[in-house]
Please model this.
Amino acid sequence: TLTANAIADDTGVYLFGSAGQSDFDVSKSDVDSTYFSPSDAGLYSSSLDTTDTAYKVGAGFQLSKNFGLEIQYIDLGQLEYKANIGNGAANLKSTAEVSGGGLSLVGTLPLENFSVFGKVGYQSLKTEIDQKITSVVGDASANDSNTDWSTSYGLGGAYALNESVSLVAEYERYTDVSDSGDDVDLLSAGVRYN
Model:
């Protein structure tokens, strides 16, 4: 994903780091149905936070002016669900945090100091689930984790400040990141060093 003039022969290794906001494609009603039945309506109130700060770091190799490979580690942040049961008699908090890494194929169209790119990849993502219930009769907790392979794809642009440093912005989607088949979107910006 280098611009045409970033490296004279259009090939080479680069490092990158980006940060931004993730958004889990999960509805509150779906999470509610995991813990409660329709007959429980009115006995609880709940909230769901689907966005979090996310980041990624990695390295790439520009095979030619138009094609490259990237390997990365990514932390997509966490999904947080809270429920108040029986007017405060009990409280439930459940979080799902997703991180992992993988490999992407990147196609680039260089335009002077600017370039646009698209990517498709395959990622191994681990989801760690933590659940805790606090109540007037005591507390309980549980945790679980699973690792799934996820297809990722994205679009972005890069602007070369000089031959070594580029600014990058991109949108990506990571599909089926957990057993429930949820997707996660990531909008990020960062720096690439050639």
